Amino acid sequence: MRDTLITVVCIILTGALLAAAGMQLDYINAQRRDMRLTIADPIKGAPPSLAFATAAMGAFRGLIVDILWIRADQLKEQGQFFDARQLAEWITTLQPRFASVWVFHAWNMAYNISVAIPATQPEQRWKWVRNGYELLRDQGIPLNPGNLELYRELARIFQQKIGGITDDCHKYYKIQLAREMEPLVGGRDFAYFEALAATPATWDRFLQDPNVTAVDPNIHDVLAALQTADPTFADRDRFVVNYLALRQNASRFPPAAGQAIDAFRGTQILDRFDLFARAYALRTIWKMEPAVMADLNKRYGPTHFADPNMRLPLDWRHSACHAMYWGITGLREVAKRQDRELENHEVNTDRIMGHCIQDLFRSGKFHLYEEMVDVVDDQTGQTVQALAAQVFTRPDLRMFDPYNRILHEVIDKYTGEGLDQGSLVSLQDGHRNMLRNAVLLFYQSGHEAKAGEILAELRQRYPREEFDVPLVEYCRNRMKAEFDSIGIYDAKEQVIAMLREAYFRYAIRDDDAAFGREKLARQVYDFYQFQHGDEYRIDLPDFGRMKLTALQDFFADEQYPPKFRQNLIARIKIERPDLAEQLAQQERLWLQESQTPLQPIP
Question: Of 83, 214, 397, 570, which one has the greatest count of Cβ atoms within 10 A?
């Protein structure tokens, strides 16, 4: 009797538990659909390894993924990044819908493994950073085209890892990205991007285009000539890559290949193929659609100072442009969903878009140059001089209007009942701080009318007592807040540094920025002298003397390439004869004060 009762109770409990589990099934399935972990839908373009793993593992695949994921996370915490990478690769093969593992895998390579390599090997660090963004761009997103988390992470690698300054090798990353993009998009106008967008997207469509087959010579003549000159051009998959490499550096190929190109130089067909090759590389290598790039140029390109209604194309050598492309592409994908709710991934992606446009405002002007630097010879161990690429980024005031507009759009998006007010307040605080800094920056650069417009917007959108003052007083107050505790050493360093920067900008013909730096230096000087000018012990020499000594420091500073110093001397002689005369008069005194003589002005 007792055994029968126990059996009945167990049966009842089993039934109750099964019923309870069944009631949770709909919720579990909904979560699986939200996380895109279902396998009902076939994965388009899946590699053979993934197809095999899906079929072979069957129902045990999820359990194996859980075990591998736990182990990969443990290895990451222990600093065993290379081992964690291998496990993450297995997980992405077994469960390609698991977005968090794609993010983990890419982050591990771009951030953890890259910095485990010494900073003396920037090319190896760059390899792992590139592996990180290529994993998301080339594999993760194509398998999960609607997952915003992957777009956000890809944008963050471009914006933060490459575009930021936290990595010791960040300049090397910027140079490599710019060099790879320069042949495709460097120095182009709107018409060029429109032409790229109109170019056939595939080889087959291009070869069937009457514009390239009906002309004389035609595309088949070009292909045959190159394939005859160099067998490497027989590989269709590598043809465009090899062609672009040939156009950039013919010395890497047999002379006959360069001669084949020369035979078609100036013809319509070669111009068309050049355009197709660049568009094809953007689409297949960089996975970027020229039509989207053209659209972003029109929406967010720098505002032309001469005509506010005109825009210039974005500089696609800049990592922030790549981050913007992928972030906006992801946001457009999720916008297609019906009745979607704003989630953290979307909020964070919008924030990254704000950071991207901010980067283009604060450092959007891209200047690549070469200079001689000290390097250690691998064979002799001796320090020798070698020519090295350098990058200098500086503010682009033309990006203010696009920057301001995109922040308005994001703030409006999160304004409304039921939305995350914390995110809204954070966005508004960032916008207010941006406007505060922009007022001073435009004022210092000589654009006082624009500075006044921005101050008026501050008063209207964020009414505060600090904004309810005249422009000059506001800028003076901002400067006072920054320099209220300035001492003699700080004053000399600030004034000299800003004047040296002004001379550099003047040498590279960035005249607005040069004027702004000199004006700010004068304001700092006047402010300090107002407070301490009557104290002989800690006063400053006259401003003219400080300008001359700053110029001496500029000429003596080896970080500036000689050509910049030569440009400055030439401009001073022609455009600032008064300063040139002062330099000539001071040269003898400087020779007595310093062992490094000032280069004489011819």
Answer: 397
Contact 547, 525 (CB under 8 A): no
pLDDT per position as a tens digit, 201-260:
999 899 888 878 777 777 888 888 888 888 889 888 889 999 999 988 888 898 998 898
Q: What total of structural domains would you count in the chain?
A: 4
Global pTM value = 0.76
Residue 68 domain-assigned?
A: yes
**What residues make up the domain containing 525?**
489-593
Question: Are residue 114 and residue 172 in the same domain, yes or no?
Answer: yes
Three-class secondary structure of residue 439 per DSSP: helix
> Given 119, 152, 178, which residue is the final one in a domain?
178
What is the spatial distance between Cα 552 and Cα 590, in angstroms, rounded to a whole number? Answer: 8
Asked whether the beta carbons of 187 and 366 are under 8 A apart, the reply is no
Identify whether residues 195 and 161 lie together within a single domain.
Answer: no
**Of 455, 484, 513, which residue sits at a domain end?**
484
For residues 136 and 110, give the distance between their C-alpha atoms in angstroms, rounded to a whole number: 11
Characterize 369-398 residue by residue with b for buried, 16 or more Cβ atoms within 10 angstroms of its Cβ, and e for exposed.
Answer: eebeeeeeeeeeeeeeeeeebebebbbbbb
Do 105 and 202 belong to one domain? no
Check if the beta carbon of residue 176 is closer than 8 Å to that of residue 161. Answer: no
Single out the residue of 329, 393, 328, 325 nearest to residue 360, CA to CA. Answer: 393
DSSP alpha helices (H): ranges in 98-147?
99-107, 114-115, 122-134, 141-143
DSSP 8-state symbol, 303: B
CA 62 to chain centroid: 37
Counting beta carbons within 10 angstroms of the beta carbon of residue 204, is it exposed (0 to 12), middle (13 to 18) or buried (19 or more)?
exposed
The reply to whether 100 and 73 lie within a common domain is: yes
**pLDDT digits 0-9 by tens, 119-177:** 888 999 999 999 999 999 999 999 999 899 999 999 999 999 999 888 888 889 999 99
Both 494 and 556 in one domain: the answer is: yes
- Are 61 and 169 in the same domain? yes
Tokens of 526: 């006047």
